[in-house]
Design a protein that fits this description.
Elements (H helix, E strand, L loop, with lengths): L1 H18 L6 H26 L20
């Protein structure tokens, strides 16, 4: 069982290195990380737009100048 797990891990590492997704070059890996972060940010913006959450609510926006009180 242990040998099967080790072979699977080695196989995955080899595949990751061959495809160019990971390397020992820090700049190359950083570029991948920046692209992933940018893609996630854009995905969140798209989802917020679709759900109508792209504009903050007056009731929950802390930067709002209007103060809502119970009168």
């Amino acid at each position: 069982m242990f040998k099967l797990i080790m072979n699977s891990i080695v196989f995955l590492v080899i595949i990751a290195c061959i495809t160019g997704c990971y390397s020992t070059d820090k700049r190359h890996n950083a570029a991948h990380n920046r692209a992933i972060k940018k893609d996630m940010k854009l995905l969140h913006q798209d989802i917020d737009f679709v759900l109508g959450l792209d504009e903050p609510s007056v009731l929950s926006d802390e930067k709002s100048l209007e103060v809502i009180t119970d009168s």
